[in-house]
């Protein structure tokens, strides 16, 4: 008689209520599970398609009572059509030198991370992170993860994006950049680069996490079309309001190398 080893059960837990980081006066709760062992990569893929996100070795999804403000969203990379503003942002950052690196923290990254937090999220929990907290955020991963760095021609680091590689796309875990380089629109450029990279790799999606339409800090995620949002366990194309006359000519498609 054949005896198959018993599979390790996957446990899910619900966190205690905490103040919502996106909408004032609301409370958040999450369902969380550990990503560990030989099946971590496969589980993370499945959970990402189910609307979960990753932090360290934990996958989580909001389960806030009476609230559905956090909507999982992903860009359909192969069909992405940047608008006029996005095309301009991509062109004006063509001078940046990009490197895809292993998930290893550096003092240079952390200095940029601190400046970004101080400029954009000074009242948030991440503003108090020390280097070892930052290193844990970058390096504590049980799956295929890297960090993409963006540098000016002189070598100065101006942006970075912690990125998970999934079987069906790229997942932007956390990005940060030089907030003083406002004219570059580096947050938007980072997403445009990920879309172009996913296309080059033949991956269908770029996962952006949660779109929160009522939050000014999170509403930008709906500007990348076409996108899909998850509702009732089904990914559906987000209603299109963009003028299709701005679609790219063939010679203007966003491409990256590497």
UniProtKB/TrEMBL annotation:
GO terms for molecular function: arginyl-tRNA--protein transferase activity. It catalyses: N-terminal L-glutamyl-[protein] + L-leucyl-tRNA(Leu) = N-terminal L-leucyl-L-glutamyl-[protein] + tRNA(Leu) + H(+); N-terminal L-aspartyl-[protein] + L-leucyl-tRNA(Leu) = N-terminal L-leucyl-L-aspartyl-[protein] + tRNA(Leu) + H(+). Residues 108-230 form the N-end rule aminoacyl transferase C-terminal domain. Transmembrane segments: none annotated. Keywords: Acyltransferase, Cytoplasm, Transferase. Residues 19-88 form the N-end aminoacyl transferase N-terminal domain. It is an enzyme of class 2 (transferase). It is found in: Cytoplasm. Its EC number is 2.3.2.29. InterPro entries: Asp_Glu_LeuTrfase (IPR017138), N-end_Aminoacyl_Trfase (IPR030700), N-end_Aminoacyl_Trfase_C (IPR007472), N-end_Aminoacyl_Trfase_N (IPR007471). Belongs to the R-transferase family. Bpt subfamily. Functions in the N-end rule pathway of protein degradation where it conjugates Leu from its aminoacyl-tRNA to the N-termini of proteins containing an N-terminal aspartate or glutamate. This is Aspartate/glutamate leucyltransferase. It comes from Falsiroseomonas tokyonensis. The gene is bpt.
